[in-house]
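Final report, results section. Input specification for complex C-07:
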Amino acid sequence: MAMGTVTAPWKQLLLNALESNANLKHSSFFQLATIGSNGRPSNRTVVFRGFQENSDKIQINTDCRSRKIEELKHCPFAEICWYFTDSWEQFRINGRIDVIDGSNSDPMKLEQREKAWFASSLKSRLQYLGPLPDLPCLSEQPSQEFSLDPSTGPVDAFCLLVLDPDQVDYLNLKSSERLTFTSRQSVNEEKCWTSKRINP
Amino acid sequence: MAMGTVTAPWKQLLLNALESNANLKHSSFFQLATIGSNGRPSNRTVVFRGFQENSDKIQINTDCRSRKIEELKHCPFAEICWYFTDSWEQFRINGRIDVIDGSNSDPMKLEQREKAWFASSLKSRLQYLGPLPDLPCLSEQPSQEFSLDPSTGPVDAFCLLVLDPDQVDYLNLKSSERLTFTSRQSVNEEKCWTSKRINP
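Structure output:
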């Protein structure tokens, strides 16, 4: 029943789910759980920004000043829970998150961050120019308007998160099908996935 | 801007969100994050089973044999992330979970568990008679059919989780309003909530 494969076998299931729920704006939203600085679980909705090119790594854009950045420095592990409301499918994706901000020393990663910046809408980019998140709002007036040249590269507050999955649990509530996918590093450093059908 | 109150001020916001999203079946689903036995975050979709009578405590039904029970014994803290897809509101609810199974020594809690059992549909109850969850599915044939007398009380596998919130973060993506609610124990043992408007 178990079989080994180098390409992530759950990725096609996820792409299918995205396609069959594409009519819903919120189908690209999922919940990302991390461990808070106080040792308690922390959980919030974030937006799927696609897979990193030719891989099964999941991209998320965030603000360097948000609490999750601090949390991920303490514990880099996270679990995505992604429920598709139309097809009744759930993906639980566990892995380690790489936090890529402007101070990263790897030119490849800085390039990925820049790509993610330009791939997001101008409106999304403007959010990174706003006031510090998670801080008390002191004024009653609406927040100041910012403008940004479309050719301007990523601002300091822009941070790319890359989740490298090593365990995926798939549940289909319509068919009652449940599958777990587990990865291990193979000899040639490539990730190798095995899958197992389990009781829902 | 901060004010103290004994009744949870976020509860009405949540009841309003439930009402304005009531047309969607999935509006009663939320994601529950816990800490796994391996120290990593764990996250899954569960169903809201209402507030405990005259309180702000949140009820969830689950199977005693599910992995989250073991996890909650290691670390009883959890965070709910509840996103309402129609009204674009998010509630992050952090608190401690009380695990109530049939072996509980408190008669009041056993009564709550029994109430929760009878409040759930017969179809839901039948799930607790099925095979062990989280275990490999060995047979290819569809799972055996079970029958249950509607007057039968909670079976061994039925477990009531009661989350006692102490921190709630509310975000409205339409109005860009964000509020945090924090509780502390007052002199007379009652929970006292303070709220604060923060930058979204």
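The longest strand of chain A covers residues 158-172. Chain A has a mean pLDDT of 90. This concludes the modelling results for the funded period.
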